[in-house]
Amino acid sequence: MGTVSDAEKKPAVIFVLGGPGSGKGTQCANVVEHFGYTHLSAGDLLRAEIKSGSENGTMIQNMIKEGKIVPSEVTIKLLQKAMQESGNDKFLIDGFPRNEENRAAFEAVTKIEPAFVLFFDCPEEEMERRILSRNQGREDDNIETIRKRFNVFLESSLPVVEYYESKGKVRKVDAAKSVEEVFEAVKAIFTPKEEKVKHHSYAISPCIENNLTLKVSLYASFKKLLQTFSFLIGSIVAIQLPFISRVLNAIRILLKGYREELSFSDTYGPPVTETSLEHNKKVAV
Ligand SMILES: Nc1ncnc2c1ncn2[C@@H]1O[C@H](COP(=O)(O)OP(=O)(O)OP(=O)(O)O)[C@@H](O)[C@H]1O
Ligand SMILES: Nc1ccn([C@H]2C[C@H](O)[C@@H](COP(=O)(O)O)O2)c(=O)n1
User: Fold this and answer.
1) pLDDT tens digits, 40-88
2) CB 82: neighbour CB atoms within 10 A?
3) CATH of span 12-191
4) Neighbours of 281 (CB within 10 A)
5) In terms of C-beta distances under 8 Å and separation of at least 24 residues, what long-range contacts does 246-253 make, across chains too?
6) Is the Cβ atom of 149 under 6 angstroms away from ligand 2?
7) Ligand nearest 186 Cα, by number?
8) What is the ipTM metric for this complex?
9) Model pTM?
10) pLDDT interval class at 106 (50, 70, 90)
11) For residue 44, which ligand has an atom nearest its CA?
12) Which residue ranges have their beta carbon within 6 Å of ligand 1?
């Protein structure tokens, strides 16, 4: 059985779908930064083709103005070229496939099946609000074209999402939330399962983490206090050493004298006391 050589290896493709203005481009930029994918926006490639002055330029421009979908053959060629030129092997293909024709043609030409479809689910009013305040100078960001694009999305693009849904390949994200919240949901989809388990088992909650930090700093302070205290004791002992040795010497001398006195009384009777003097006097009389 032959092995699959590097040349035969297919690139990993993730289709990014959602209504116009749902935030596909915004989130793709985040995924590129965190997960190393190359972002290919079908809309951006078509707009670049118009700017380049190619023979298809005028046709593409007219279709975009009308909110219509450019023939698959044109878009797929642009995508394939961009994939080859990128040098990467994992791609976010944003705004594609926009209809059933796009989907079937891509699979037939490239023989690539997407790993999954990232679907941004957003209410129409929110998408309209976002597009109208986008300010990127796009010719199709006007209310008339926006309405046409919404219709094309409902009629042609949603069935593609449903097709992949039936294959269990759709990862849906609530795109109505803030950019940060949406990216949290996107990150969870892109993070490998093992890593999620690892983080779940070993991650320290902020509360425990704070507690640990407190304990560590308390321990450090206590250690420092102990070091200062033993340094102080050491210094006192060192400074007072001559005095201490003199006191010890005096004690030693006193003890020695006492011991000698004891041994004297053992040899020559009890020490001379007032009572014994009286006794001697009595004996003399
Ligand atoms: N979660 C969000 N909350 C608020 N505004 C957002 C959010 N995501 C994106 N936007 C803003 O909405 C506008 C549309 O976003 P973006 O261009 O990413 O959408 P899109 O789905 O790629 O649109 P299109 O399909 O028309 O190219 C941008 O101005 C963007 O800054
Ligand atoms: N697969 C595609 C993608 C895009 N277009 C055209 C029609 C869209 O209205 C326009 C803008 O796309 P967007 O930047 O919103 O993704 O580009 C197409 O014909 N086929």
Assistant:
1) 999 999 999 999 999 999 999 999 999 999 999 999 999 999 999 999 9
2) 19
3) 3.40.50.300
4) 9
5) none
6) yes
7) 1
8) 0.99
9) 0.73
10) very high
11) 2
12) 18, 20-26, 43, 95, 130, 134, 178-179, 182
